[in-house]
Specification:
Radius of gyration: 25 Å
Number of helices: 13
Strand content: 5-15%
Largest sheet: 4 strands, mixed
Shape: globular
Structural class: alpha/beta
Distance between the termini: 36 Å
Helix content: 40-55%
Number of strands: 12
Order of helices and strands: EEHHEEHHHHHHEEHEEHHEEHEEH
């Protein structure tokens, strides 16, 4: 999961952000467009138009991802955020599509948006060519139109995680009714596509000496890696089957009040509990953050009396909050659970904490399922619990 570094606000209620690597993409597009337009005007005009064209393409990438996210929201799928990065963008969905039709609509929305932008840019380029023949603006609009069409066509290649892979998954899911088979075929197709791009990139470098081959190799490596991850997720869904979150969660976990100071925690029963990850709750018992021993170790000893837990705990993304009756596979595929660092917090209908699922719980459930053993977890007796009661004593 990419970490957002440049917040871009919200569109249609969906949070947008950019990874720092997107600056490399904008610089590359500026150079490519500036080189393409070098004979269409003065140097200053050419590079000013090139910067504008690169930013317009950046906006096109955002529109592509927004199309996915808006359709997902209207299909009942929650969207955490959109992050733009070096190789494009990613819409982070916190739910899975409920059926093949919704999966298809969400997948096809992005390429259709890119084709629409390409058609609009082509029309504007034709107008600009009439008013200023051979000018930089007409050239930039033509480049923008062609790039969006290429973006749409490339994304429709039938391999996950590309949009075409999602379309392939939706079609197979609809035809067979087997979601696992559909996801597996799409992921393996993505692996094959990634390998093909790497081979083509190597061939381009050897045969023509073009550095563009390195870009193909990078794309191929990304597709291979992402497709492998999707294949792993498909396997996990198969192993977990209908296992629910309540079957593996630790009920009534030890929760840390957000208003405590670090020293209060260290003087409490928490260090002797054997737990390595603690949910942090507000005054109403709702989980708001996650805390690990490594987070506390970063606080210098002289300031532990004055440092509050909510100042060192890590914000809890909405994707790590689950209901007890939710499928464990759905909850697990939304997040990356690092051992001794992260956890899925389980809440009741009012949002109050009732359990947690750690990376160890998830791994154990997968292993037990693979062995044909029940995944239901038996809770140890006399579980220690800290509550957010302001009068609680450490």
């Amino acid at each position: 999961m990419l970490h957002e570094t440049i917040p871009l606000g919200r569109v249609a209620g969906i949070r947008l952000g950019a990874h720092w690597s997107v600056l490399v993409t904008i610089a590359l597009f500026t150079w490519m467009l500036g080189t393409h337009l070098r004979d269409t005007g003065t140097t200053a005009v050419v590079w000013a138009v090139a910067v504008g064209g690169a930013l317009a393409l950046f906006a096109s990438l955002a529109a592509h991802e927004l199309a996915h996210s808006i359709v997902a929201t209207r299909s009942g799928v929650r969207v955490e955020r959109i992050v733009l990065w070096l190789l494009g963008g990613a819409s982070e969905l916190t739910d899975e599509p409920r059926d093949a039709r919704a999966d298809f609509r969400i997948a096809i929305a992005g390429p259709l948006a890119s084709l629409g932008i390409g058609a609009l840019a082509f029309g504007l380029a034709a107008i600009a060519e009439v008013t200023a023949p051979g000018g930089a603006i007409a050239g930039a609009l033509g480049w923008l139109a062609l790039t969006n069409v290429v973006l749409a066509v490339f994304n429709l290649l039938p391999g996950a995680p590309l949009d075409g892979g999602r379309v392939l998954r939706a079609v197979i899911w609809w035809r067979t009714g087997d979601r696992l088979r559909a996801a597996t075929v799409a992921a393996r197709s993505g692996q094959f596509l990634g390998t093909t791009l790497i081979v083509l990139g190597i061939a381009e470098i050897i045969a023509f000496g073009h550095l563009g081959g390195a870009w193909l190799m990078l794309l191929g490596w990304f597709l291979q890696t992402a497709a492998h991850a999707e294949l792993t997720v498909a396997g996990m869904r198969h192993r977990l089957g209908d296992t629910r979150v309540r079957d593996v969660m630790t009920p009534n976990p030890m929760a840390i009040p957000h208003f405590w100071h670090v020293m209060q925690l260290l003087d409490s029963r928490a260090p002797d509990s054997g737990h390595r990850v603690f949910p942090v709750v507000d005054a109403e018992g709702r989980p708001v953050a996650i805390l690990a021993w490594s987070d506390l170790a970063a606080v210098p000893a002289p300031v532990r009396h004055a440092t509050r837990i909510d100042a060192v705990a890590r914000r809890l993304p909405s994707g790590t909050i689950a209901g007890a009756d939710e499928l464990l596979a759905d909850a697990a595929t939304r997040v990356v659970l690092r051992p001794t660092l992260d956890a899925i917090t389980v809440v009741d209908a009012s949002g109050r904490l009732i359990g947690i699922v750690t990376a160890t719980d998830l791994t154990t459930a997968c292993d037990r399922s693979a062995l044909g053993l029940p995944t239901r977890k038996v809770s140890p007796p006399n579980e220690l619990r800290l509550t957010p009661d302001r009068d609680a004593l450490p």
